[in-house]
Amino acid sequence: MLILTRKANESLVIDDQIVITILGIEGERVKLGITAPLEIKIHRKELWDAIREQNQIAENLAKKEKQDNLEELRKFLVTEISADIEPIK
Known about the structure:
22% strand, 2 helices, elongated, 3-stranded antiparallel beta sheet, 43% helix
């Protein structure tokens, strides 16, 4: 991992195509501006991880028999839905 220090309004360039500029620093939060060609996908890491996980689940489901697919999907949906529901207090 390359570690760089930058101040507000300073930039770094990646592969002559991507420019990352520090727009501001507010407490522990850093605002970044990214200039890149449209064909380059840019995601927040947590979103990228979720996309990869969903793609892996879809790939695994495609490899199994239909009945197994339905059961796997049912279990996944139950887990996802129950994680989003807060218990009544």
